[in-house]
Inverse folding.
């Protein structure tokens, strides 16, 4: 399954309710699982972003559906999502180059 890296910034609302972060991560895991994806890892980070999530999803559409639904919770003021390629995936891509 493709891997995605999600960079997120908490909203003011989420910061006020930070003590419930574990519950919110659990809800996010369930939302991804219900859509056929998996929230593999979550990191709280320092710097430009507040949270980094590693997600596996069968395709871009599935990831977008869950990302939009999670955005509707109001917990994040901005996000960025990137497709990540494993070493093996890159090796296949390079092998197919002309």
């Amino acid at each position: 399954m493709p891997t995605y890296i999600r960079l997120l910034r908490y909203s003011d609302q989420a910061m006020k309710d930070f003590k419930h972060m574990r519950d919110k991560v659990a809800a996010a895991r369930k939302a991804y699982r219900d859509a056929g994806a998996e929230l593999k890892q979550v990191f709280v980070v320092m710097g430009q972003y507040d949270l980094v999530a590693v997600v596996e999803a069968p395709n871009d559409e599935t990831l977008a559906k869950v990302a939009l639904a999670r955005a509707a919770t109001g917990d994040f003021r901005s996000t960025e999502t990137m497709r990540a390629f494993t070493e093996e995936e890159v090796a296949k891509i390079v092998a197919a180059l002309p």
Notes: The helical segments are 12-16, 21-34, 60-71, 87-95. DSSP finds four helices and four strands in the chain. Residues 21-34 form the longest helix (14 residues).
